[in-house]
Every structure is written in structure tokens, then in C-alpha cells.
């Protein structure tokens, strides 16, 4: 995030959109996560955590104490019976969404987003390049912004998959528990922070199993 991004943060995430003489109701819509209709994903499980010695890199720090060798970390997931390894290649940031009050809130039409189920997330490849690469898709004009909303409701492994996918592609994300932050506010917070991924979770669905 650059200094001018901080200065323009309020205007980029204004609930009503840009200042105008009037604000037609048709410009706003209520967005709700699928979990409100009982949707959860229970087809994702962490399968394997792997460490592979990384290639030696030159360092400018001189020390007499031997340093432990670096390792590349991967997390392998089982999704509907298929194995999907994700390499934790980037040190990305996860920003906890700020709670909102009296939600859900309407979302201005210009805050463009695309939702994806967490068990379909591995099919989304290089989201940042899709947005800003030299050949954007036909339905996305060059320079347009779009936030990917990952619905990771259900078991804890779902959220781990979403975070590992971000680390694999080098994308920081806003993480919102919809019991505290509505979907519209989470999307606007991503626009404010110049992030292109939102991970939605619901802690009500991740309770500890009862003894029995």
C-alpha cells in the first residue's frame, strides 16, 4: 500500500459510493453469504504437511553461528478425494475485518466482487495476474478492480486451505467472521486496503465436537 492509497482510503470504501446529488436505491443491493441458507463445505481435509530443503541463497549477513538451513513448506489437501499440494511460497498478510454494527448492509454496485466456494478455490489460478496481467479476460476491462470472495464455511480445514492458497499465489487477504462483519463491509474493507481477496468464515460452524 502506497501513501496515496492511505489518503484515498475513505473515498475508495465509502458506503454510498462517490459523492452525488442523489443516491438511487437501485444502485445498492444486499449481499449475503451462502451460509445463511445452510451451506457448508465438508469435503476438504489437511492431508500432509511437507518440508523440502530450499536452494541456498546468498546472504549479506555474516555470522559465526551456523544458521539452520531454510526449507520450502507445502500443505497438501484432500478435496473430494483428490490431493492438491499448495506451496507456501510467499509471506502474505491476513487482515482481520473490523466488526460492523446492525448489519447486513447494502453494497454499492461499483464494488465488484466474485464469490467462490472454498472447495473450488484450487481451480482459480493466479488471481492477481488475471486482474493486472497483460491479457485480462473479456469480461474484465483493463484497470478494473474485482475482489475474490472465498466462502470457507464449515470445518477449520476450509480456512486453512484458503490461507494456504493465498500464500501459494502471493495474495494478502481480509478475513471476516460473518458473525461480526457482514459480507458487504468485508468487501469494502478489502477495497480500502487495496486487497483483492476476502476470506469469509463462520465460527458458529466450527464448534468443538461434543463428548459422547
Description of the structure:
- The strands form three sheets. This protein has a five-stranded parallel beta sheet with strand order 5-9-10-8-7, with helices on both faces. Strands 2-3-4 form a three-stranded antiparallel beta sheet, covered by helices on one side. Strands 1-6 form a two-stranded antiparallel ribbon.
- The chain has five helices and ten strands.
- With 212 residues, it is of the alpha/beta class.
- The chain folds into two domains: 3-17 and 28-39 and 91-205, no CATH class; 46-85, no CATH class.
Summarize the structure.
The protein has 212 residues and is α/β, with parallel strands linked by helices.
Write the layout of secondary structure elements.
Layout: H1 3-7, H2 9-12, E1 28-30, E2 44-53, E3 71-79, E4 82-87, E5 94-96, E6 106-108, E7 113-117, H3 127-132, E8 147-151, H4 156-169, E9 173-177, H5 183-192, E10 197-201
Parallel strand pairs: 5-9, 7-8, 8-10, 9-10
Antiparallel strand pairs: 1-6, 2-3, 3-4
